[in-house]
Amino acid sequence: MKNKGFFPIVLFAMIVGVFASCQRFEMAQIDITQDSYNDTTKVVNYTARVLDDGGCPRCIEAGYCFSYIDPIPSHTCFYSTVVPLVFDTMMTFTDSTQYLTFSWRRTIPFVEGIGGDNAGDTLLYFFRSYITTNAGTFYSTVDTVKVSNTFIIN
After folding, report:
1. Is 29 helix (H, G, I), strand (E, B) or coil?
2. What residues make up the domain containing 135?
3. Number of Cβ within a 10 Å radius of residue 111
4. CATH code at 43?
5. pTM for this predicted structure
6. Could you tell me the sign of the dihedral formed by the alpha carbons of 2, 16, 62, 77, in that order?
7. 9-33 in b/e burial notation, b at 16+ Cβ within 10 A?
8. pLDDT tens digits along 76-95
9. Cα angle vertex 72, ends 46, 149, to 5°?
């Protein structure tokens, strides 16, 4: 029973460590822009900008998620695909005109049943970017891509 005080000290050190790396510990603000979409090749290009780090300059993960079933894709949605992107993990904001920016290119996957008897049908894909800091995971607004049934299968 000599180590009664050990657990509270460890817990206190962990809490201080999480909060010490954040100045404000608020929500990060992230924006998404669809740069282009080609309905023939089914390739979409996006750019995401972290407008405000929420006071937590350490970025643990950033990327995007998408779904054709759930209109609000996320890490917790069973029908979402989450794609983390790799880049420098320390965000630095020296003034209000500098943003962490990351881009991606995605070929929209084929969905069985959208062609054939369903000629003329379209499918909506829902995209949004995310960033995870010490304060949590934060998402951009959702952007949609309307996909026709003329998929190219390689």
Report:
1. strand
2. 6-148
3. 14
4. 2.60.40.10
5. 0.74
6. positive
7. eeeeeeeeeeeeebeeebbbebebe
8. 988 899 998 866 545 544 44
9. 65
